[in-house]
């Protein structure tokens, strides 16, 4: 009887290490979330602390919070125009990349043509070329066309994305070809199959590319710095670099600009978070 009692209690004892591991995992995740969120919280606190800098250290709970830094930022610099520049460039870049990446992904996945694998491999190889190598040739080319210091000059190099094509091609591969065949039997051509069959079935991947493309354009610093010369044409990353040089000791103003640059991306990611996870999982990216 004692042996049977010991045997029955073993599973109950075995559950305790698993529960303890789950608790430890949750504690680690919570601590990691706090560590990642605290810099953003400190940025907001600093931006609403009047005179924060070398002489006034921001406290976790500001004694006299104020939005004067935001008011001063928009009054002394064309920051509203800068924010609209970033929003406009990022929106156009995202829409064009969605179109070019989706159509190219459909061609690479569904249209058999000679040398398709080689062309796709060469196209993916361009992802290994850093932007710093291409800046001088791009600048010379755009200068020959008179596109320096124009929105079009800032947009043209971003219209195609090798990563976007790869991401959407993997998603198109997941769509059963039987759907294409059924649509073909109903008299549908490639355009109707693309818009009516493929696109509705790769919406998570499209949402993922939307976030990545918008984020890449929003945070792009080097190319707008080179091609956009006028202050009224600058984007937020370039304007933030100027703030760090002009308001070196006025951290409340610098942090106010940082908050403005972060909020749109945070809102976009929170809105599309579910689709981003689905898109990455369905496309086979690790």
Short description:
By secondary structure, the chain is mostly helical. The chain contains 13 helices and no strands. The relative contact order is 0.13.
What's the SSE blueprint?
Blueprint: H1 2-47, H2 68-76, H3 79-110, H4 116-125, H5 131-144, H6 151-155, H7 162-174, H8 177-185, H9 190-201, H10 203-218, H11 222-227, H12 236-246, H13 251-283
What does this structure look like?
The protein has 286 residues and is mostly helical. Helix content is 76%, strand content 0%. The chain contains 13 helices and no strands. The longest helix has 46 residues.
Task: List low-confidence stretches.
Answer: none
β-strand number:
0
Outline the biggest β-sheet.
none
Summarize the amount of helix as a percent range: over 70%
Overall pLDDT metric: 83
Which structural traits does this protein have?
mainly alpha; 286 residues; 13 helices; globular; single chain
